[in-house]
Amino acid sequence: MTDQPTPATASRSPMIAMLLPWILIAHFLWNLLTPAHEYPMRTEQVLTMTFDAMMLAGLIGLRQAMPKLMFSIALVAGIGLFALRLTSDAGWWTGHFVYFLPPR
């Protein structure tokens, strides 16, 4: 009887608990190291901020199913995604640390 998963752990996949932190970390590094070249539409900006917030909430919800160090690094990366938006006006719109227009 003790072999059966409880309802709380039956729906949690270890694959998601390992993939979600890596996605957050990779997304943060991409936005930090890659320059943006154009402003997105307002709907895209709000949508990416919503996705980032939902991934951060999912990370906090799955914190027991992942290693503590990975959780800590991914938490800093998730908060860093929002911190990048506070660096400048271009950062607010693009979510990237650097923004410039390439020469034509």
Please sum up the structure shown.
With 104 residues, the protein is mainly alpha-helical. The chain has helices at residues 7-10, 14-33, 42-61, 68-84, 89-94. The chain has five helices and no strands.
What can you tell me about this protein's structure?
- The chain is an all-alpha fold and 104 residues long.
- Helices cover 64% and strands 0% of the residues.
- Helix 2 runs parallel beside helix 4 (68-84).
- The protein starts with 6 loop residues before the first helix and ends in a 10-residue tail after the last helix.
Task: Count up the domains.
Answer: 1
The number of helical runs is 5
Net shape: elongated
Straight-line distance between termini:
69 Å
Rounded average pLDDT: 89
Beta-strand percent range: under 5%
Helix content: 55-70%
Secondary structural class: mainly alpha
Note poorly predicted spans.
Answer: none
* Main β-sheet description: none
Radius of gyration: 17 Å
Features:
104 residues, mainly alpha, 5 helices, elongated
Secondary structure elements and pairings:
Elements: H1 7-10, H2 14-33, H3 42-61, H4 68-84, H5 89-94
Helix pairs in contact: 2-3, 2-4, 3-4
